[in-house]
Design a protein that fits this description.
This protein is an alpha+beta fold. Helices cover about 15% and strands about 35% of the residues. The strands form five sheets. Strands 6, 7, 10, 11, 12, 14, 15, 16 and 19 form a nine-stranded antiparallel sheet that branches. Strands 5-4-13-18-17 form a five-stranded antiparallel sheet, with helices on one face. The longest helix is centred in the last third of the chain and has 28 residues.
Length: about 525
């Protein structure tokens, strides 16, 4: 018998697409296996937020490998015009309507929801728990089983496991584990149907977590223009693979699609796009950026880019979209569709010196090899780009983590040019990489225990709101607060207060606007929260 609470939850609409929009980007994460896409609806990457202009049309993972017999396997997807390769949900024995009812969606949660949840006194009833937390796809979630008949028997979405039993129990204090202000979890696999380009499938399960951060520190503006995507790719096949290659394929469409140029920065493990003509006028159903100078990059945060290539829509077959399994592998391993190697100079085709990276030069330096230096040979156009890593071994049960950052730099300054904005992008990419190294990895180390995506939480559970704050700041905890200490960005103590209560409010209008650290202490625990006054 399904309880009234379960019936209420079951009537909640399945969210086929959710938007990450806490910072300066409005990015849609939807079903169907591609980023910034929802089952055929493309271009869900608006930047700056509210502008109506998109920087990315769609993006996807490509993979290929050989098994012990030498047979080539692959998982790749572009626009699904010839069928899907990736399907929503984890690998399962049975794919049916009950499976689709739960898994054909994405799962969004915010830090505000988690903070409020953590003020509760546990255990609680299902009616007290936000549906985003209650129905989170954590291993063993009994509420998902009772509503959908789906038993999540293996690791799926990450969660904080208070009693370390490996089971997601939201009525007992377990909650989604993520770093950032908003997160969207999704799961896809290539096991359900044959590969769209005819390759034998790999049998991989891909668990993705897309996050955004609000960072108001003056030097961190690049973080506000970034979406981070954490992929966890598991080999659930019966094959031990070698020569495994993994790639990000992206169709940028920077405003109008038909005047883009692309390149790569091997030192930063980044591929990027910029406009090749100005102004960037609207075309078709795509709004252009006009005279705004803009460049978008995809950074491989924890892997070394080994190859970079591009595709031009409407180009000759050798340099156009791959249409079969060997051509997909070629594009990831330094070869064009016809098997000729990438070469230095010109458009990267039919030259004398093989290379792994096409257009690695600075567009501002005409002596280096970029699309600008060969503009007489190659006109700006509708580009796709592919950056790949490998080769690797990928044995049965292995997991590969592939962390990406999609970041955009733009300027309304009339002194900036279509090409100097690429220098701004590189500066912002350094900020984003440093943020990943110093903040995100540190956060993850606190959330991930050995073998499972969980950790026992000994920190004080505190909700601080609103944040950013203007006049009043509210603080609520599950146990009595003994003291508050707030320091400014220079480490100076600006507030100190003792008390013995679970909730308090204080005025912030007398403090200078900026970033502060608030330390909240109880009898045995403490926590530090970053506070923004605006």
């Amino acid at each position: 018998t399904i309880s009234l609470i379960a019936m209420t939850v079951s009537m909640l609409p399945a969210q086929a697409v959710e938007f990450l929009n806490a910072n300066n980007i409005n990015a849609g994460i939807g079903i169907g296996g591609n980023l910034f896409t929802n089952a055929g609806q493309f271009g869900l990457y608006e930047v700056p937020k509210g502008s109506g202009v998109d920087a990315i049309f769609t993006a996807s993972l490509w993979m290929c490998a050989s098994d012990t017999t030498g047979t080539l396997h692959a998982a790749d997807q572009t626009y699904s015009q010839n069928g899907q390769t990736y399907y929503d949900g984890p690998i399962a024995v049975v794919y049916n309507s009950a499976y689709d009812a739960y898994y054909k969606r994405v799962f969004k949660v915010t830090q505000a929801q988690v903070d409020l949840y953590r003020t509760l006194t546990f255990p609680v009833t299902a009616a007290q728990v936000d549906a985003a937390i209650l129905m989170w796809p954590g291993k063993g979630n009994t509420h998902v089983d009772s509503v959908y008949g789906i038993n999540i028997a293996a690791r799926l979405a990450p969660f904080v496991d208070l009693n370390n039993n490996g089971i997601y129990e939201p009525l007992n204090g377990d909650y989604p584990a993520f770093c950032g202000d908003e997160a969207v979890f999704f799961a896809i696999n290539d096991d359900r149907t044959p590969n769209a380009t005819g390759c034998p499938k790999l049998g991989v399960e891909i668990r993705g977590l897309a996050t955004v951060y609000i960072d108001n520190a003056p030097a961190e503006k690049g973080v506000n223009n970034t979406v981070f995507v954490q992929y966890e790719i598991e080999n659930k096949s019966l094959f031990n693979y070698h020569n495994f290659y993994l790639a990000l394929w992206e169709d940028p469409d920077l405003g109008c699609a038909f005047n883009d140029r692309v390149g790569c920065d091997t030192a930063r493990n980044m591929m990027f796009v910029y406009n090749g003509t100005t102004p960037d006028a609207s075309c078709g159903n795509e709004f252009g950026y006009g005279t705004t100078r803009v460049s978008q990059g995809a950074i491989m945060l924890n892997q070394t880019m080994g190859y970079f290539s591009y595709i031009s829509n409407g180009a000759v077959p050798a340099q156009s979209d791959p249409v079969n399994c060997p051509q997909v592998r070629n594009m990831m391993t330094g070869y064009w569709n016809d098997g000729t190697p990438f070469t230095e100079g010109g458009a990267g085709y039919n030259g004398a010196v093989p290379t792994k990276f096409i257009f690695p030069g600075d567009p501002n330096d005409t002596s280096s090899w970029s699309e600008v230096s060969v503009s007489g040979t190659l006109s700006a156009g509708d580009r796709r780009m592919t950056g790949s890593v490998g080769p690797k071994n990928f044995a049965i049960g292995d997991i590969i983590n592939y962390d990406l950052a999609f970041t955009t730099s733009y300027s309304y300054d009339t002194m900036a040019t279509m090409f100097t904005i690429v220098d701004t992008l590189k500066r912002d990419a350094d900020i984003v990489q440093a943020f990943y190294n110093n903040t995100i990895l540190s956060c993850r180390s606190q959330l991930i225990a050995a073998g499972v995506n969980a950790v026992k939480d000994d920190a004080l559970s505190v909700s601080v709101f609103p944040n950013p704050a203007d006049d009043l700041l509210n603080i609520a905890t599950a146990e009595n607060i003994q003291s508050l200490e707030m320091t400014d960005a220079q480490g100076r103590l600006v507030l100190q207060r003792t008390m013995a209560e679970k909730k308090t409010t204080f005025h912030t209008s007398t403090f200078a606007r900026g970033v502060y650290l608030l330390k909240v202490k109880s009898e045995e625990k403490s926590v530090v929260k970053k506070i923004v006054l605006q």
